[in-house]
Amino acid sequence: MFRAGIESVNASAASAAAPAYLPFMPPAILFDLDGTLIDSIELILGAARHAFDGFTGRAPTDEEWRAGIGRPLQTMLREFAPDDAEVARLFGRYREYQLAHHDRLVRVYDGVMEAVREFASQGNPMALVTSKSDWMAEKALVLVGLDRLIPTIVGAESCQNHKPHPEPVERALAILGVAPADALFVGDSPHDVESGRAAGVMTVAATWGAFTRDELERSGADVVIDRVQDLRGVVARFPARTG
Fold it and tell me: Which of 13, 21, 172, 196 is deepest in the core (most CB within 10 A)?
């Protein structure tokens, strides 16, 4: 009995001294929408052209509008409209074109569906972080079949501040219950990179969207990738910040 008692005490001590092994938690993946998951660049440019058709002031060039992709629509319109009434008029014309041509001009990028399905099967928490209106973002996800794989949407109505402010990324992390050190943000614009860096997450810049590799490298992204397939390797090597 005495020896058994000693063995019991020793076993308890050994158990207490043993390190606690926590189950592996795959990193959370936050995605931008336009230019990252879906190819909607021509829709965005076409809607801007339609909105400013007949505008009496200086209308933006395609290049100027492209540079603003990733920020809220009304923020971009205010850079050219003289007052709130004109912003509202331009917004209405933009939305008119956007809704009329949305389903024809939006498609999922090659390889995105397969990659997102793989991440879902691995248990990676995922959320959409976009400057688009929440309902428009959901409309796009439903159209391409990503809505059930990425059910969490942080859009324009979800935050007071928008990209490049960190609030949208921080909001997504709070909803998922994930710390910044355990997440990465995938986007195609310097605005995505700035937002992610300010929030403390790993930033992955995709060159298949609206911005060039040079622009994305200069933005300070942790990793710049040229193919959707490359994202699998980045996630597998997480939290390495070069690749």
Answer: 196
